[in-house]
Design a protein that fits this description.
The chain is an alpha/beta fold. The chain is built from nine helices and eight strands. The protein starts with a helix and ends in a 5-residue tail after the last helix.
Length: 231
Amino acid sequence: YGPEILNSYVAAYLREEIQAEALTKDLASYSRFLNMAAELSGQYMNYSKVASDSEINKDSIRRYMEILSDTLLVELVPGYKDVDRKRRARQKDKFIFFDMGVRNFLLGKHVPASIGREERGHLFEQWFILQIIYFNKLYKKGWRISTYRDAMGVEVDLIIETNTRCLAIEIKSSSNVRDKMFKGLIRFSEIANRRIDRYLVYQGEFEQRFENLGLAVPYRRFLEHTVLQLD
């Protein structure tokens, strides 16, 4: 999208969706929160920290998040719970803006040169998760989609639970695969209460199986073939 279209979209969203529907009385605070939410897209939600950083009370932050979700501006990805009870208690939800172009525009980063390499990796991860969420909704698959991170350092970008399988997926923007990239998936497999199929999705060209680690799959192949084979 061009800057003019994105600017009109954001203005129309605030004016028509939020103000006209009287979803919040404090449009200025909500607008400020919207920019902060764009910056935090793809992260685990810590309401206390966001409230402190934004100087908006925690109850308002929760309400604003509900507005973002109700108006379909963000997708909420819950924390995976079927693990050891001590670890389960530490799970937080992650939220992702529905469109990376809108997210970037809110942050003044609609010019590709303004986005650094590390941030591009985070954007790729969010974009990929959105493709799975939208595929699940479009075809009414009924998959349970979640994420995982605990205080012990175990983290999984994306978890897909179908009727018969549980896929743990690490998402990398790299075009090469190294054994250490499977570390989080291996550790997650050890604490999950069911069998885990481990996948590493990346920007390379070839599917590669790493013995006792998992399967590395080019992201296009995963989206165009692997997901179609899931029940």
